[in-house]
Every structure is written in C-alpha cells, then in structure tokens.
Design goal:
With 159 residues, this protein is an all-alpha fold. It is built from 6 helices and 2 strands; from the N terminus they run H-H-H-H-H-E-E-H. A two-stranded antiparallel ribbon has the order 1-2. Helix 1 packs antiparallel against helix 3, helix 3 packs antiparallel against helix 4 and helix 4 runs antiparallel to helix 6.
Length: 159
C-alpha cells in the first residue's frame, strides 16, 4: 500500500474518473448540443481503454502490468490533449482532419449535407469550464493520473 492509496483503490478511482469524464463529454455533446472536433473525439479513446485496464487491474492478482498499460494510456491522452491545446493557442498547426473540407464540393445537396454534419475546427474553443478549454482540462487530468501512476510504479519497484 502506498502512503495515500492502494493500487486496487487507484484503479477504482481512475475508472470512476474515466466514466465521469466520458459522461461529461457525452452530456456536453448531446444535451448541450456542442459538437466536438476530431481531436476532442480522439481524446475520449484513452478514457474508454483505461476503464478496461482498470477493471482488469482491479480484479486480477498481477496489477503491475495493468498499471504500466494505464500509464502508457494516459501518456497518450496527455500527448493528444497537449497537441490540441497547442492548436487552440496557435502554437501548432492544425492537422488536415481538423478543418472543414467542404470547399471543393460542387453539388448543392452534397454541400447541404456537409453543412448538416459540420465538425468544428480544432482551434476553435466552443466550450469552457472555469475559463479553461476541455482540452486544457484533459491535460490536467491526464497529467495528474500519469504522475500518480508513475509514482505507484516507482513505489512498487522499491517495495
């Protein structure tokens, strides 16, 4: 047991945080009607994966492998969200999947369909909580989970 938390409880807490994060994203998208950009959608995948890793880490005897996998998952989440924050703040250029590509559409019906399925640009912050973009909040959450995961790995190695 670590000073503050056991690994088993850590998996339970991270699973709960992941579920709440995903439910919050779905609420913002479907209830509030704010469409996510491509990177916002990509940032959800590590949370889905982490729920599975937490389930196995919580229920199986060998918890270290799941702790390593969870660390890699949140390193990936941190990387994606950091890149997204960089795009929002004009530090990095948008990748081609971030911007709307309906400029080369010739048919009227295709243009109308593309406008109905509009996906916001990744640089546009469409929703904030306490003045922070959702990508910035994801940087904070992912970074915190990664640091705690690495501390638990270090503790387990020294034990």
């Amino acid at each position: 047991m670590y000073k503050f938390i056991s690994i088993k409880n850590f998996f339970l807490i991270i699973a709960i945080v992941s579920i709440i994060t995903l439910l919050g994203a779905v609420f913002i998208e479907y209830v509030l009607g704010i469409k996510p950009c491509k990177l916002c959608l990509y940032q959800r995948y590590p949370y889905v994966v982490s729920i599975f890793f937490c389930f196995f880490g919580y229920s199986q005897h060998n918890k270290n492998i799941w702790l390593y996998l969870l660390s890699v998952t949140f390193l990936l989440s941190l990387t994606i969200s950091f890149y997204h924050v960089g795009i929002e703040n004009y530090i990095f250029p948008e990748f081609s999947g971030c911007s709307a590509d309906n400029l080369d559409i010739i048919k009227k019906q295709d243009l109308l369909n593309s406008l109905n399925n509009f996906i916001p640009n990744c640089k546009d912050v469409t929703y904030r909580i306490l003045g922070l973009s959702l990508a910035t909040i994801n940087v904070l959450i992912s970074g915190l989970i990664l640091v705690i995961s690495l501390l638990l790995i270090k503790y387990e190695k020294n034990r």
